[in-house]
Amino acid sequence: MTPLALETSRRDDGNRVLTATGEIDLSNIADFSRALDDATADGPLVVDLRAVDYLDSSGINALFAHVDQVSLLINPVLEPVLTVSGLIPLVHVE
C-alpha cells in the first residue's frame, strides 16, 4: 500500500488544485474527503489524480459528492474505473 499525500495549491490562472499522491482507499478516505471539503469551500477545484495508483469506491464516492465543483486530472490507469462508475461524463477531465 502506498500512503496518501495531499497538497493544496493555486495555479497561475487562480484555480485551486488538490494534488493527491499514492492510493485512496478506506484507510485514508477521511483525509481525502476533508481535503476536498476544505478546498471546495472557496469555489471550483482541480483534483490532480495523476500520481494516484489506486482509487476505491470510497474515493469515487467522495468525488461524486463534489461533482459540481471539481474538474479532474487523472492517471490513465484510473480511467476505466472512473468511466464505469459514471463519474467521467459528469466532470471535466483536463
Summed up:
The protein is of the alpha/beta class and 94 residues long.
Brief descriptors of the model:
alpha/beta, 5-stranded mixed beta sheet, 3 helices, 94 residues, Transcription Regulator spoIIAA
> What is the domain tally?
1
Please state the overall shape, judged from the principal axes of the Cα atoms: globular
CATH superfamily: STAS domain
What is the alpha-carbon Rg in Å? 12 Å
Instruction: Describe the oligomeric state of these chains in a short phrase.
Output: single chain
The secondary-structure class comes to alpha/beta
Number of strands: 5
Show unreliable segments: none
CATH class: Alpha Beta
Strand content: 35-45%
Largest sheet, described in full?
A: 5 strands, mixed
Strand ordering within the main sheet: 1-2-3-4-5
**Helix percentage:** 25-40%
Distance between the termini: 27 Å
| Residue-averaged pLDDT | 95
Give, in order, the helices and strands: EEHEHEHE
Structure description:
The chain is of the alpha/beta class and about 90 residues long. It has a single domain (about 5-94), classed as 2-Layer Sandwich (Transcription Regulator spoIIAA). The protein is about 30% helix and about 35% strand. It contains three helices and five strands; from the N terminus they run E-E-H-E-H-E-H-E. The chain has a five-stranded mixed beta sheet with strand order 1-2-3-4-5, with helices on one face. Helix 2 links the parallel strand 3 and strand 4 (about 70-75). Helix 1 (about 30-40) runs parallel beside helix 2. The protein is globular, with a radius of gyration of 12 Å. The protein starts with a strand and ends with a strand. The mean pLDDT is about 95.
